[in-house]
Specification:
single chain; mainly beta; six-stranded mixed beta sheet; five-stranded antiparallel beta sheet; 44% strand; disordered N terminus
Length: 378
C-alpha cells in the first residue's frame, strides 16, 4: 500500500485553496411558511476555514439553483436532486444535494455553497460521522471535514487517490475509508493510504463508470471492511482481501450498496440483477419476486423493526418485512420514482431523497419536506 503524507490545511493562495461561500436559508421551526416562499433576510456570518476565516455576505437569500429538468414550482425543495441524507449524533440532519450541502440544525436550514479547486460547484454523494463527532462530506472535488468550527478540505494534492468521491465509511479504529471513481483511500487523520482493489469491467450502462469505481463501503459486526464494486463485493479482514461475485452465487457483480442486518445477514443492491442476501453460506435472490417491479436496486436500509427498505429505479421504494414486499410510489406521496437515499432518523422516521426533493414517511404516506418544513415530528 502506498502511503502519502497529507497537508492538513488549505493553502490560502493557489489552486489548492478550497473556496467556501456560505449562503444561509433561514427557516422558522414554528411551522410551514404559509406563502410557500423563502424568507428574505440579510445574513453575515464568519466561517472558519483551517487557520483563516472568511466572511460570506448574503444581501438576500439566494435563489436555490435547481437542475434544468426541475420545474420552477419545485424550486422550494431542499435540493432538486437529493443524493444522501444523514443525521449526526446531536440530531442535526445533513443533506447532500446535486449543488452542495444542506444542514438542518433543529432551528435553521443552512446551505453551504462549497466550491472546488477551480471554483466549480460540487455534488455531495456521501456523508459520515467519525468517532470524534467530525462530519465528513464526500463530493466531486474530494472530501471535506467539519469539526463544528472549521471546514478542512482534502483532495488529490493531499494524497487522496482521486477527487471524485462516491462512497465513504468509518471503521472502529477511527479510520476514514473513501471510495472514488479510481479506487480507495484510507485516512487516519494524518496520512492517506492507497488501498488496492482489483480492477473490474466498467459498466457502461451507467452515466459514470470506471474499472476502479467503489459505490459502497461499510464495516461489519466483525470489524471487516466491505467494498461494493463492478466486480462484486470485496471483504478486507485487516490481512487479506477476499472477493465474492456471481461465480460464488452473488446475484450480480455491479454492487451499489451493501448492508449487514441485525442477524448478521448481508444484503446486496445490484444494478442489473436485483436484490439478494447472504447468510455466510448461501445466497437468496429476490430478482424474480413478482412484487418487485425492477432489477436496478440503489440503496438498502434495515429499520429499527428489522424491515428491509430498498429503492428500485423507476419504481420508488419497497419495504420487506420478512414475508411481504410493499411498494411506495407516487400514490403514497413520492414525487419521483428515482430514490437515491434511504435513511432512518433517531425518532424512527424513514427519509427518502432523490429527484424532486426529500420525503419523510409518517407511517402511512410520504410527506414532502421542503425548505419550509414541516420539520416538527408528525
Amino acid at each position: 500500500m502506498k502511503e502519502i503524507k497529507s497537508k492538513k490545511y488549505f493553502k490560502r493562495n493557489g489552486l489548492t485553496f478550497f473556496r467556501l461561500l456560505l449562503s444561509v436559508f433561514i427557516l422558522s421551526c414554528n411551522g410551514q411558511n404559509k406563502t410557500n416562499t423563502i424568507q428574505k433576510n440579510t445574513v453575515i456570518l464568519k466561517i472558519k476555514v483551517a487557520a483563516d476565516s472568511i466572511s460570506a455576505l448574503a444581501n438576500s437569500l439566494p435563489e436555490f439553483k435547481t437542475d434544468p429538468w426541475v420545474k420552477e414550482s419545485e424550486g422550494n425543495q431542499i435540493g432538486a436532486v437529493v443524493r444522501t441524507i444523514f443525521q449526526d449524533r446531536s440530531g442535526g440532519i445533513w443533506f447532500g444535494v446535486q449543488s452542495g450541502l444542506c444542514h438542518y440544525n433543529g432551528a435553521l436550514l443552512l446551505f453551504y455553497d462549497i466550491k472546488g479547486n477551480l471554483g466549480e460547484g460540487i455534488t455531495v454523494k456521501d456523508i459520515v460521522e467519525d468517532k470524534d463527532g467530525n462530519i465528513w462530506i464526500g463530493h466531486t472535488s474530494g472530501i471535506t471535514k467539519y469539526d463544528g468550527e472549521y471546514f478542512t478540505s482534502y483532495n488529490e494534492s493531499d494524497g487522496l487517490v482521486n477527487n471524485d468521491v462516491w462512497s465513504m465509511g468509518t471503521d472502529s479504529n477511527g479510520t476514514i475509508w473513501i471510495g472514488t471513481l479510481h479506487g480507495v483511500s484510507s485516512f487516519d487523520g494524518e496520512v492517506f493510504t492507497t488501498f488496492a482493489i482489483p480492477e473490474a469491467k466498467p459498466d457502461y450502462t451507467r452515466g459514470v463508470t470506471s474499472a476502479k469505481i467503489v459505490h459502497s463501503i461499510m464495516e461489519d459486526s466483525k470489524g471487516r471492511m466491505w467494498f461494493g464494486t463492478n466486480g462484486g463485493a470485496y471483504i478486507y479482514d485487516g490481512i487479506a482481501l477476499t472477493n465474492i461475485s456471481e461465480k460464488d452465487g452473488l446475484c450480480g457483480n455491479t454492487i451499489n450498496n451493501i448492508v449487514e442486518d441485525k442477524d448478521g445477514i448481508f444484503w446486496f443492491a445490484t444494478t442489473h440483477n436485483g436484490l439478494c442476501r447472504y447468510d455466510g453460506k448461501s445466497f437468496t435472490s429476490f430478482a424474480d419476486n413478482e412484487a418487485i417491479g425492477g432489477k436496478e436496486i440503489g440503496k438498502i436500509l434495515e429499520d429499527k423493526n428489522g424491515n428491509i427498505w430498498f429503492s428500485v429505479k423507476g419504481f420508488g421504494v419497497y419495504r420487506y418485512d420478512g414475508k411481504l414486499v410493499t411498494n411506495f410510489s407516487k400514490k403514497e406521496g413520492l414525487a419521483s420514482h428515482v430514490i437515491m437515499s434511504i435513511f432512518e432518523d433517531k425518532d424512527g422516521y424513514i427519509w427518502c431523497g432523490g429527484f424532486f426533493g426529500t420525503y419523510r414517511y409518517d407511517g402511512t404516506s410520504f410527506v414532502n419536506i421542503t425548505r419550509d418544513g414541516p420539520w416538527t415530528k408528525l
